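Following up on my earlier message about N-oxalylglycine. Here are the inputs again, as you asked, copied directly from the submission form:
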Amino acid sequence: MNTQVQEIAEEDCKQVPERYVRKQDEEYGHATTTYDATSPKTAQIPIIDLSLLASSSTLELQNLKSAISTWGCFQAINHGIESSFLEEVREISKRFFKLPANEKKKYSREENDVEGYGNDMVLSDKQTLDWTDRLYLTVLPQDQQRLQFWPQNPTHFKEVVDEYSSKIELIKDVVLKALARSLNLDENCFLDQYGSTAKMQARFNYYPPCPWPEKVLGVKPHADGSAITVLLQDKEVEGLQLLKDDQWFEVPIVPDALTINVGDQIEVMSNGIFKSPVHRVSVNSKCERMTLAMFCMPQTERDIGPVEELITDVTPRLYKNVTFTIDFFFKNYQQGRRAIDACKI
Ligand code: OGA
Ligand code: NI
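Thanks, got it. Here's what our run produced:
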């Protein structure tokens, strides 16, 4: 397997390893996006109160619609997860990444698989690599968990992740219902496309400090293949950036908030009303950064498509029905293409 980025960072290299140097042609051709990773403006991402969404506040529904239409993203507060529990989730992640390399490698992903501990899947010699190590796990449905990849250390890792996943599952329902209601649709119209088993994947991201922050990215520009993604940010170190109007904006840390963005599958289901935002991750020369992304999506064997009510004479169907598999997503991503473009008619 590849060398982990953590090991490269610890070697104290004098020069940036070539495989990690960003290339312009992987950045969706946005001329303004070159080498500016260190000084973007701050994004004024709206803060949405999930308890108000759950109680059908019309004003909060409008705020949600506006947040998603503008940024594709919002900061969720009053989401029902205690701050002490968020701390526990951060702690198990930290304890895992702090294990000795040979301990972590027991959970290494296989070469052609995304699940497990590892870094970028290398599909071509030219591909620029992300400055990040990850632990990628299917957490729901529970019978699809592949326990050989689940750390035994810390010992309560599984207990915490299972509990966190079930809490995120509730949040996902509140958000998907609210998104539907904000478009005056039946509140279950997105959830109805989920099939009987929703899928959730957890991606624990570890970004070691990187001495070349202007040349290297933690994660290349991409949009998520999920319906929605719920991100637990690092408590102190920023790094997530969103592309809006051809400019990069830094997403600030809001204490105890969860950063929620829509993914490609909501873009398809909403017939393009809600756009899946392009985002990337910068690296920090001094500090490490850890985040946890929970990707919520319909069961993978299932076709999804634009909700019928949203296809009209004035707003024709923009996307095909597609089955959004992980392979479909990653093949496009690693070649610097967006999966959503492959869904467009
Ligand atoms: C991701 C992602 C952002 C971050 O894992 O898809 O965009 O800040 N992560 O780690
Ligand atoms: Ni992402």
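One observation from looking it over: Residues 177 and 187 are 5 Å apart (CA to CA). Hope that helps, and feel free to reply on this thread.
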